[in-house]
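ligand=adenosine-5'-diphosphate
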Amino acid sequence: MALAFPAAHVNDLVIKEGILLKMSQQKKKISPRNYKERLFILKSHALYYYEYDKGKKGAKKGNVLIERICCVERVQPEDNSPVERQFPFQIVHDEFILYVFAKDDDSRNDWLEVLKQVIRNNTKLLTKYHRGFWTDGKFLCCGQAAKTAPGCTVLNTERNSPEVNRTPPHKPLPPIPPAEDTERTALPPISEDRRSSVKMVVARYDYKADGPHELNLLKGTKYHIIENDSNQWCKIRDTQGTCSGADTVQHISLKSVRVEDYPWYVGNLSRVRAEQLLREKGKEGSFVVRDSSQKGMYTVSLFSQALDELNGTVRHYLVNVSADGKYYLAQKHLFDSIPQMIQYHQLNGAGLLTRLRHPAITNDNKAPSVYGEWELCRDEITLLQELGSGQFGVVQLAVWKGKYKVAIKMVKEGSMSSDEFIEEAQAMMKLRHPKLVTLHGVCTDMFPIYIVTEFMSNGCLLDYLKNHGKELQPSQLLDMCLDVCDGMTYLEREQFIHRDLAARNCLVDQDLTVKVSDFGMARYVLDDQYTSSVGTKFPVKWAAPEVLNYTRFSSKSDVWAFGVLMWEVYTLGKKPYELYDNAQVAEMVSQGHRLYRPQLATAELYQVFGSCWHELPEERPSFQQLFELLRAFQDE
Ligand code: ADP
């Protein structure tokens, strides 16, 4: 079991708090023992304890500096100890041992987990400890009479898995049954994970090569995709570099290793929002996988009523990575990819509060984000009602395949360079991320062309800010910006330029998640007033100087637009440079004028989004950097 908690760079951040029974520290050789209920508060640099009486925090009674702690471990309860002293653990620091008692094993595991995390970089961690109490001048486990006597039991160093003491590591795994959607034989070429651009997949079944041009495939093994021309055939290479034949492509059963392709992955969702979401669902075993507050890591958040039937409990498990790059959760069942690990825990609790039963996707009527056929059958779409209208025509709410709510952009003839769009659409469909509005497919057999996308029930971000902005908390405004930044970080990594990022081109989902929409679509607009930088409809107020002067688009010009979008969010949907027209704004910006600080944005935050408006593109932060900077505000 592993808890994720915010980066511990702010000393006052409370990482964990709770009531524990504390044994007197017996600082003298023989001293009477007593037990007191104390409120323990763990911060990044110290563990404090306070008097606690009638539900109220009292005077501070002491603290242990984190840097002084050299071991946290369970202790064997003494014979005949009362119920409240069944779950002891020890915090060894300096030459003392602080013994505390949790109310149950889960609570003890949680404390051990978090404490082991915070001390993990301490320099003098013990490798051996005493599993028995120090009492009446000696250790009950080994009888040694010096409190500083070397430990008698080798410490289990699995820092994230207190349970491993009781479970043999590497116990054989129950087999993973074949996935339900056996129809789906191949997935699009995709990157192995969010940090690399290598296109990698995992074989779902063993496959015997049909001739020398093919590779034998081993179930569970990773392969790189070199080309992927259709949904069923692709050219692959194994990790040793052996390729399937030069001109041939191989028919394989592959399953994506990329978390973005699964409905349970929700991207950057804060711990608080994850808990809200899971509690709203209130369903035993609802779970999500989200970005952890530790960079590049993931957390599984899980809801269960096993411990508290009335209110339920949400647990957050950090996805651990072993030294050889395998993934695991509570106990050391190792997997090549996170999807494989999740699939295993969907069937086996294996140390979790319960098994991962239901991905807590926010909209039950959403079409699955699966990349398959891109030309869809018009007859399978039933138009329901108009949602709005945009550059290409009307946008309609519709039902696809009789069950999925989708939005349809109905592209009228003459509004779009449709041949170019159709050519590109397939590539655009491969852009998949929880913070991008999913493109399900197109109907291009006649006009109006249908562009079928994920339906976002709260409509466009700009309208949402204008109509509901006042109801939003500052943390929600930040979450919205982070969502957009998250989606844009993905586009940046995929080297895809949006070209028209603005609040009007983002959409708000049922749970207020914001997703980036219309990426790359500006290229297909047939309207000079929109496409020419001196046109009346050109988004001059979101455009970087190099776009206005030389039509030079890049991820860094998207960053400029993102700064303006943040300004829109923090002004709750105001028009940028309201009193000026496009020509005046172009002139003002070239002279160094910038948007003012909105009242709702702190000076520190304004500094971050102001950095997006550096005259030189290379001096602006990347989306990846912005994401980290903004996330620090979220932690605070
Ligand atoms: P365009 O990009 O063609 O100019 P928009 O994407 O701005 O058009 O769509 C126009 C309006 O339709 C939006 O302001 C929004 O209210 C609504 N809309 C568009 N796409 C969706 C969607 N996927 N889900 C819900 N509403 C949408």
